[in-house]
Amino acid sequence: MRRDERWGVGSILDRRLLRDSPRPIAVALSGGGDSLALTLMADAWAREHGRHLLILTVDHRLQAESAAWTDRCATLAARLGRPFRALAWEGDKPATGLPAAARRARHALLADAAREAGAHVILMGHTAGDLAEAAAMRAAGSTTPDPREWSPSPVWPQGRGVFLLRPLLAAGRADLRTWLSARGETWIDDPANTDLRYARSRARAATSVPAPIEPPPDRGLPLEGVATGGELVFDRPALRRAPSTEVRRLVATACVCAGGGERLPAGSRVARAADAALGTERFISTLAGARIEADGARIRITREPGEAARGGLQPMELPAGREVVWDGRFAITAQAPGLVVRPARRGDPFVERADAATIVPLVGDRFRAAMGLVEGEPL
Question: 3-state DSSP call for residue 114?
C-alpha cells in the first residue's frame, strides 16, 4: 500500500519516529473508522522503513458485541501479517464516572502491553473531531484537554517511558471514511459514541466539523529543571521571565512528578504555589505530595517526607528479578530475594543491601516528558 500524504501523516511519523529502530511501534485499534485508517497508514509507513508494528485492541467488556469487534481487529492484523494482542478490562465497572474509568483502564492496558513488547510509542487515532469535541466540552464547563499530537502516556506508573502519537488531528472523520470506502474497507460503529448519557457523545452530536481543524501546537516551557534522584531544582529568577500560565503548568507538573502521584492538583492551589514561586521571599509549601522550598536563587521540589506518617511512603518487599515502581518515583529491581525498600531522608528509597538492587530514579525523565522536552521516539 502506498502511504497517503493527504493529511501529512507520513511526514508526522517521519518527524516523530525513528526509521531504523529494532523496537516495535504499537497502534491502538478499536475497529472504528479512525483507528482503522490509522492502522493502515501506520502499516504502510512501517513497511517502507522496515519497522515492526504491534496492533493492540482493548475490549472494555461494556458492549455485547465487543468480543466480535476484537475478532475483527485480529482478522485485520492477520491480513497485514502483524502481531496482535487482545487486551481486556476485567472486573466490576463503576456505577458513575464510567467514561473516565474506561479511559484510564484503556491507557493502562495499552501502556503495559507496549512496555512488555519494548515499544516506546503508541499510535492513537484521534482526529479533528476529537479536538472539536474537547472544545465543546470545555465550553460546557468541563476541564477536558485537547488531544496533543505528541504526549507521554497519561497513566502512571504503567505509562513510564511510553509516548502517544496522534498523527490524524488534521483529518476529519468523514474524509477518513471516504478514504476507507475507496479502498473497500469496512469499520465498526460503537453505539456508545451516540449514547447521550455521556458528555463526549453529547458534544459529538452538537459539534459540526465542516473542515479539518488545525491542531494546537505542542507547548514546551524552555526551562528544564536539574534532576537529581527524586529532586527537581529550578532557577527562580529564570521563572520570573516566563509567562505565569506556563509557570503554573511547570509547578503543577513538577509537584506531581516529585510527589509520585498521577493527578494534577487543583488549579487554585497551583496558582497560589506558582505566585509564591514568582515572588522573592523564602517559602516552604506542600502540593500533590511534594515539598516546595524556595530561596532567592533556587526552587527545590522534592517528596514530602511527612507522607510516610499518612501512609504515602510504605516499606515494600522486593520480588527478585522483577522491576517494581516504588512510591511512583523509583524503578527498583532486586537481584536477590528478601530485600525490602524503605523511605530514607527526604523520602528517597533505602535498601540495606544496595549492591543487590538496581535503583533508577524516574522523576527527571517523567518531568521532561510531561513538559514537552522529549520531542520524538526515544532510542
Answer: helix
- 95: which 3 cell numbers? 456505577
pTM: predicted TM-score of the whole model, two decimal places: 0.91
Cis peptide before 157 (omega within 30 of 0): yes
338-350 tens-digit pLDDT: 999 999 877 899 9
Q: What does the mean pLDDT of the chain come to?
A: 90
| Residue 353: Cβ within 10 Å count | 12
Please write the tens of the pLDDT for every residue from 18-39.
999 999 999 999 999 999 999 9
Q: How far apart are the first and last CA of the chain?
A: 27
* Residue (of 154, 111, 163) closest to 377 by Cα position: 163
Looking at 50-171, list the stretches that DSSP marks H as alpha helix, in order from N- to C-terminal side.
66-80, 98-117, 128-139
Question: Helix crossing, 244-259 with 267-277: angle to 10°?
Answer: 110
Place of cell 530485600: 339
Cell readout for 320 is 527478585
